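User: quick one, fold this
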Amino acid sequence: MQHLLGPLDPPLIQFDSIHVNSMTDASGIFMGTNAQVNWSTSSKSNSGLGEVSGEHNKVWNNINTVYDNDIIDAPYTKGDLIIGRV
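Assistant:
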């Protein structure tokens, strides 16, 4: 007799390996029975120089200025402001 997967059987997903090169905002690796309740993220980044990548790069005598005079960086959306969250 063949066993057919029914609605109560969990799905079977198998990985030989998982490689994580970097974790950023709103990233997560979860295992087992879990639930992410009220999980949200927001971030801000100011960069006056940008990004320097590659090999043998040199940045000499640079002057960077970031002028950020706004009071709110982005309007709040549903779930962004939860009283009591640290």
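User: anything notable?
Assistant: The chain is about 0% helix and 0% strand.
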